[in-house]
Amino acid sequence: MARMVCLWLPNWPLQRLRHERPELQSRPVVLFSNTGNRGPRVAVVGRALLPVSENKTGKSAHPTLEHGLTIGMPLAEAEALLAGHDAHIERHDPVADVAGLRELARTCNSFSPLFGIEKAESPECVLLDVTGCEHLFERRPGKHNLVAALTNDFRQRGFQVRAALAPTIGAAWAVAHCLAKPHQQPMLSDEELEEALAPLPVTALRLPLKMVETLHELGLYRIGQLRALPRESLPSRFGSELLQRLDQAFGDAAELLVAERPAEPLAVTWVTDEPLTDRESLRFVCRELTDELMGQLKPRREGVRQLLCQVKGTAARPVELLVSLISPSDSTKHLLELLGLQIDRADLPEGISFVRLEATGIASLATRQRDLFGLEADTDTHREVSSLLDRLSNRLGATAVVHAALVPDAQPEWSVRHEPIALECGVSAPLWTVSAKRHSRPKIQSGADTPHSKESLSVRPLRLFVPPQPIEATTAGPEGAPIQFRWDRREHRVIRNWGPERIETGWWRDQSICRDYFRVETQTGQHFWLFRCFEVAAWFIHGAFD
Amino acid sequence: MVARDVIADLSQRIRTIERTGQRCATKSDLTANGLPGLERLLCEAGWPRGGLVEWLAEGRGTGSMCLALWASRAAWHNSLLVMIDSQRELYAPAAIPFAVDLSKTVFIRPERPPDALWSLEQVLRTRGVGAVVCDVEQLSPQACRRLQLAAETGGGLGILLRPAKARGQPSFAEYRFLVQPLPPPDARRAAVVAVSRRWRVELLRGRKRFGGDSVIVELSDGPNGLSLAAELASATPAA
Questions:
Q1: Does the interface ipTM go beyond 0.90?
Q2: pLDDT, tens digit, 9 for 90 and up, residues A20-50
Q3: What is the pLDDT of residues A242-270, one digit of tens each?
Q4: CB B156 within 8 A of CB B133
Q5: Which candidate, B225, B163, B235, B159, places its Cα nearest to that of B199?
Q6: Closest-CA distance of chain B to residue A521, Å
Q7: Which of these CATH numbers, 3.30.450.90, 3.30.1490.100, 3.10.180.10, 3.90.550.10, describes A266-364?
Q8: A523, B183: Cβ pair inside 8 Å?
Q9: Structural domain of residue B58, as residue ranges?
Q10: Shortest Cα distance from A378 to chain B (angstroms)?
Q11: A-chain residues near B191 (CB < 8 A)
Q12: Which SS3 state, helix, strand or coil, does residue A247 take?
């Protein structure tokens, strides 16, 4: 019989979310969905693994979790229960869950050529057909078997998994859910199948909830009990699905694994015996390669968003040049220009004999609709601006070309966050509409509705020194405003001051602050932003009103 | 009347000749000046699109950037503003009062001064950029000429913030101003409520007029935002 591995990622929606956003690791997370017309309901909740024992005994399909939360309870109730627990609440996104699991499955191609995800409403398992692959792993030193290696691989990437190997998909699923432990992966042979599955609960058969309840009402809790019943009586009592699942688990009916296809890399390579010696020749090679790459992309109506260029010389390590674009482009000229900027600055190896160009990011091109009233010129400007940003990002580095996003934080140095434009922009919309809508997270505000929006001189200095610079200051009293201070090798006498403005952060911060800010005007008419720091009882200059 | 028309026409033609591009300074080539009082120092009714304006000041905290942003805030209305920040000091929230929309603002933070100059030229050359603000310490005449040509190609306004010691250097900018903060009049020292600042803005040189004139500008926080505090003092330079 075949050899199947089931890799179960318990509570996958949460695991995915925590993997994407590590800052949620220690916080309780609640995902809600709007099904039916009863308002938002809790769909997924938790901090760690779902208690498996609940499934095993099959007593409750909706286990009660910490803080008294249950699946399906109204969101408002959950919010009340979680008040003060710093919980993260978000809408459940089942589509992203499936896509994430698919992507995860594709990373398994070093273990088996056939891999996919389970067919279910909300899948949580990756399935692998490892028939004929096991012996490849037994000979490796330090690795006992394929399943252990697979589990370790996932664990190292930060996922919690349960895995099992069995002759059928159904059996692997059942064993992974009921018998597998974090560090113990059961492996069933054909002979052990019958014996191992008999004591497992009926929920291990992947049955719908309603049927499980019916079985429980009749006193049928174990798979063994079902096997003991006359086979022909089952469909008339429970429908055809029960028999089908039973047969699939024991290998009497076939079950198809829908394999994911690994994404094909789009790359072109150039190899020579006569090594290149100058940058100009490299540029020429790159032009040829880019032309070839674009030729492959054109029929697909796609453009490049990210281009990786590997250059190998006599040195062992290849040099990698990465070109990222704001919006996908199919223009050879533009890509070459960006690549050229990198080639100019890169430390290229001696005697280049191998160049590989790979389109690591591909996106469909924006459709260019011609407008009757001459708006074409406007899109030209947009294109010119995004080409400018591409050039800047590629020469100066992505982190040097940024947008500023306001964060509602009392501490001035934390109240703005710089986000690289190259990594975040969308595909086809003009630059600014994308940047404004990009984040729907409630924490980020756009400029218009913040307390800074009023036209005023008194808000904050245009230049902020991070970190603040210590100064020596003379004050009018122990709690008073500064009269004189020394900064930048010069003595400044204060003639006017505005303040104090107390800025304090809460104790829950790692490093809470308590500062009294003064805006001061010196005798030369310069305006500075000074503060008294209460933690260290010293004065600092934090900015200049330039 | 007729003579004035003739002079206007002639000056228009001179402008056309002076500019390298095919454009000429019609009204649409100007961005409104946002600082009443300053127009006495300008030869046109606003800031030239596709030109450079230098703002010189001595030391930090003088408010030259605040004045420059306030005066030219119409330039980034509905278009992109680029701020080149090699010191990594610009504080974005503080720019919002100057009609800066952060979603239409790009901050460039190069690590080396040559990169800053390269970025400045690239940005100026791009159509669709309303204005670019950049600190420029050293600028050779050749580099300045390149920047000016780039600005003419792109059509944006280049705002260069420079130290006062640059006043002797040759320049291709449309205007070069020196901003000097002035202490408040003695009467107001006692009663400090709203923040107010006074400056003397001196035109050191302009492309089309001689320098030497100056105005005194005062900005203060009013109930409806920033305002010019009082009628301006006469433009007599200090003796």
A1: no
A2: 887 777 777 888 888 767 777 777 776 544 4
A3: 899 999 999 888 888 888 876 677 889 99
A4: no
A5: B235
A6: 9
A7: 3.30.1490.100
A8: yes
A9: 23-180
A10: 8
A11: none
A12: helix
